[in-house]
Amino acid sequence: MSDTVETKVQALLPGIAERARAAEELRRVPDETMAELVDAGVFRLLQPKRHGGAETDPTTFFRVVRAVAGACGSTGWVTSVVGVHPWQLALFPEGAQDDVWGTDPDTLISSSYAPVGRLVPVDGGYELSGRWSFSSGCDHVSWALLGALVVGKEGRPVDFLTVLVPRSDYVVHDVWDVMGLRGTGSNDIAVERAFIPEHRVLRNYEHSQLRGPGQRVNPGPLYRMPFGAVFTTTVTAPLVGAVQGCYDSYITTMRDRVRLSLGGGRFAEDAFAQVAVARVASEIDAAVLQMDRNIGELYRAAVAGEGIPMELRLRARRDQVRATERALAAADLLFKTAGGNSLRRGNPIERAWRDVHAGSVHVANDVERTLALYGKGAFGLTVEDNLI
Q1: CATH 1.10.540.10 fits 2-103, yes or no
Q2: How far is CA 101 from CA 109, 196, 378, in A?
Q3: What class has domain 225-378?
Q4: 1: confidence class by pLDDT, cuts 50, 70, 90
Q5: pLDDT tens-digit profile of 195-227?
Q6: What distance in Å separates the CA atoms of residue 17 and residue 359, rounded to the nearest whole number?
Q7: Which 3 state secondary structure label does DSSP give 258?
Q8: DSSP character for 270?
Q9: How far apart are CA 90 and CA 210, in angstroms?
């Protein structure tokens, strides 16, 4: 199935690229694009087989994400973020999975994981209230995964949970008006005293320990991988893909360009331009190779039924944030050497430059903090972090 999905996605890329400008103007992925991606099976790649999914090797999923992002960064971002949620839902109790996919296996989910929600225990579950930002693709979905803290009798937080909430229990506030990733529709979600049954709750501690009640019905290795590696790669993969698309456009555009200043001549014959191209290509290759290596090793360890060593978890996070740094460096170099033409709004180079810079500020791309965690591990110190 995954090979078929990749083939189908390749055929969709020209249309996605043509609609990239429309995505920015709409401030959300066009409905036509989302329908095509659903029909191609993209959002089922990490979905359990028992619910009609492919349950594929995650490197396949991230390869698809990079391809889509190469055509449109915003669409690639939404593809990645919405596409990873079936993987997490598979860890919820069986009842939650049935609630979402029981009647339609193509049902989509958005998220906002910051623990800004307030959960109060009640009979049979919890009462939830809060307002969350940055829920990418939320206009296209029927459910949301939201971060929340359980509040005890004294008003103090006692647990950190991810809760599953149906569209009927929340309101989407259209607030997304930003400089990059404009087409992601990352709007706010508000909930007021909604009832959350116990089976729609996942404890983050269990998640970090590679456990989840859903593993009883989804025992495959895909669902025994660490959230800290899978989710953060979900954030970086579209940035690397956007730069790859930017590079491809740059080569096509600049190959036959003739300079009217700086001595004239073909741009492609300029040694400085040739060096810039080499640097960018190397940064992209390094990012892809390291991330795919780490995700591949994590998956193979899960297939073998082995524990996931802390060294590998730390390395995956190290290389993920470095991949974001590499994408930024590559985008900056392409933007700078493309000259004044890169200033025109809507061209692939400036759009990718804006998208990569916007995505780089996501909490998963906190470079210095993440590299410090790797350093602590290398020195044999204890590392505690919910994104490891």
Answers
A1: yes
A2: 11, 18, 43
A3: mainly alpha
A4: low
A5: 999 999 999 888 778 889 999 999 999 999 999
A6: 19
A7: strand
A8: -
A9: 12
